[in-house]
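> example.struct
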């Protein structure tokens, strides 16, 4: 909601959750670690691959046309 200024549609929630699960698995298998930096305490409790998947989702949301477009 904070990124796009509206509540997510049900399909967007489903796609985001699927992305997080798939990306987390891929990152875990490849041994990729999240980038260092400050982390909110909620994310600090997640395993590294899950934390990195959240960072990837945030990047994807910030790069979507709906976020970039300023009316």
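> example.seq
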């Amino acid at each position: 909601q904070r990124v796009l200024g509206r509540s997510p549609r049900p399909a967007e929630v489903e796609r985001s959750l699927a992305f997080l699960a798939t990306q987390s698995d891929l990152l875990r298998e490849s041994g990729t670690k999240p980038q260092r930096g400050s982390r909110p305490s909620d994310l600090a409790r997640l395993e590294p691959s899950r934390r990195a998947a959240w960072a990837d989702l945030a990047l994807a949301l910030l790069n979507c046309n709906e976020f970039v477009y300023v009316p």
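> remarks
The first helix runs from residue 10 to 30.
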